[in-house]
Specification:
The protein is α+β, with helices and mostly antiparallel strands and about 140 residues long. It is built from 5 helices and 8 strands; from the N terminus they run H-H-E-E-H-E-E-E-E-E-E-H-H. It has a domain of about 90 residues.
Length: about 140
């Protein structure tokens, strides 16, 4: 009986839309799902990415990425990112479409395991397909941070 209980307690369930988790629980589950391309923790709630369309997301996204990449190339001391995880606080770990941060002396740092921690100077979301999330809870989280 004890072995069964031990095995059950070691099983970590997959992430599901709507799960309410701490950031540590979220990261533990996310790391065990390498096939998953995008998951975010917003106000302690898990949101999984959905398929994206070219006209409403893909094309605007490439324009933003080109703009930020060009800005990074022409501006010393900044770093652009595309779809990288940002550890904002204990309940929020979004994966914005694009970001720009000041490398030294800015609001964010890079953790030992390679994640952005703290708020970058600019976060960009292409909200056409995710407007119900991006323009409500997520926008409040970004403003607060």
């Amino acid at each position: 009986m004890l072995q069964t209980i031990t095995k059950i307690s070691q099983v970590i369930p997959p992430l599901e839309n709507g799960d309410q988790l701490t950031r540590l629980e979220f990261e533990t589950r996310y790391h065990r799902m390498p096939h998953l391309k995008k998951a975010e923790l917003i106000e302690g709630v898990v949101y999984l990415g959905s398929p994206l369309r070219i006209n409403s997301h893909g094309n605007p996204h490439i324009h933003i990425a080109t703009w930020l990449g060009t800005y990074e190339a022409a501006t010393a001391g900044v770093q652009a990112g595309d779809n990288c995880t940002v550890r904002l606080d204990a309940d929020n770990e979004p994966q914005p479409d694009a970001l720009l941060r000041i490398k030294e002396g800015g609001q964010s740092t890079i953790s030992e395991d390679g994640y952005v921690e703290g708020a970058p100077e600019l976060i960009v979301e292409i909200a056409a397909s995710t407007v119900s999330i991006d323009l409500h809870d997520k926008q409040r989280v970004y403003r607060r941070n």
